[in-house]
Amino acid sequence: MEPSEKKSSAAVSDVGAWGMNVVSSVGIIMANKQLMSASGYAFTFATTLTGFHFAVTALVGLVSNATGYSASKHIPLWELLWFSIVANMSITGMNFSLMLNSVGFYQISKLSMIPVVCVMEWILHSKHYSREVKIAVIVVVIGVGVCTVTDVKVNLKGFICACVAVLSTSLQQITIGSLQKKYSIGSFELLSKTAPIQALSLLILGPFIDYFLSGKLITGYKMSSGAILFILLSCSLAVFCNVSQYLCIGRFSAVSFQVLGHMKTVCVLTLGWLLFDSELTFKNIMGMTLAVVGMIIYSWAVELEKQANSKTLPNVKNSLTEEEIKLLKEGMDNAPVKDVQLGESKV
Q1: Kind and range of the H or E run holding 345
Q2: Do residues 154 and 101 touch, judged by C-beta distance below 8 A?
Q3: Hey, is 337 helix, strand or coil?
Q4: What is the pTM of this model?
Q5: In the chain, where are the structural domains located?
Q6: What is the pLDDT of residues 220-257, one digit of tens each?
Q7: How far is residue 269 from each of residues 40, 110, 272, 285, measured CA to CA in Å?
Q8: Which of 30, 107, 153, 281 is the most exposed place for a label (fewest CB within 10 A)?
Q9: Are 143 and 283 a contacting pair, CB within 8 Å?
Q10: Cα-Cα end-to-end distance for the chain
C-alpha cells in the first residue's frame, strides 16, 4: 500500500472512531430518555436497564478475551468489587438523574464533575491547580448553579440522584486512573473484568432498587414491541460507546479528545431541547452557555498546564543527568581499585 493510501485509510478509521463515539454517546442518552420518560415508554427501571447494558458488555469482553484481542491481567478481587460498587452507583445515579430531570439539567449536572474531581484530588492527593484552572472551575460552578435554580423540572429526588451520580462518577474516574497506573491496564480490559460483576449484582439487586425508588415492579410492566426495540438499541449503543471510547484512546491528542467531548455536550443539549424539553428560558440558556464555556476554558487551562510541565521537565532531567555524570566521575577518580580475586583494596 502506498503512503497516500495508508494516510487516507488511517483518516477514514479516525473519522469512523470519532463518529461512532459521538453517535453512540449522544444516541444512548436520547434512547434512554425516550425509554424511561413518562412521555415515552415509561420504563422506570434504570438499575435493571444498567444490568442489561453490563451483561451485553460482559459478553463482548468474554468474546474479546477468547479471541485473544485483549490480554488478561490479574487484579485483586476486592479492588474489582470496590470499583464495581462505585461504577454501579455512578451509572445507576446517572440513569435515574436522566429519568427524573430534563436532558439539559442532566447534561449540565455532569459538567459539575470537573470541580468535584478537582476538590477530591486536592483532598485525596494534595494536588494543586493553576489560576486558570481555578477560574474555569468557578465559571462551571456558576453555570451549573444557574441551570439548577432556573430549571423548572428539577425536583428533590432528581437533584439527589444527580448529586449521587456526580460524586460516584468523580470517584470512579479517580479510581480508574489509580488502577490503570497500579496494574498497567487499559480501560477496555478493566471494563471487561468488572462488567460481569456489575451485570450480576445489578440484575439481582436492580429490581429491588427500582421498586424502592419508583414504587413499581418490573414484573408488572407491560412490555411493548417499541420498549423492547429501545432496550435493545440502548444495550447496543452502550457497547458501541465503550468500544469507541477504547478506539479513540491513543488515536487523538488531548486537545482533539476535549473537542470531541465538547461536541457531544452541545449535541446532547441541542437534541435534548428539540426532542424533550419544550420549556427553555433565557436564564437557563445563559446557565448552559456559562457551564459549557467554563468546560472549554478548563480544557484549555489543563492543556496549558501540561505544556508548561513538559517544557520544564526536560531541563530538570538534563540537570539531574549532568549531576549524575559528575558524581560518577568523582566516584571513579576517588574509588580504590579492587582486586577481584582477593576482594581487597589496593592502595
Answers
A1: strand 345-346
A2: yes
A3: strand
A4: 0.66
A5: 16-313
A6: 888 899 999 999 999 999 888 877 766 665 555 555 55
A7: 19, 12, 5, 10
A8: 281
A9: no
A10: 66
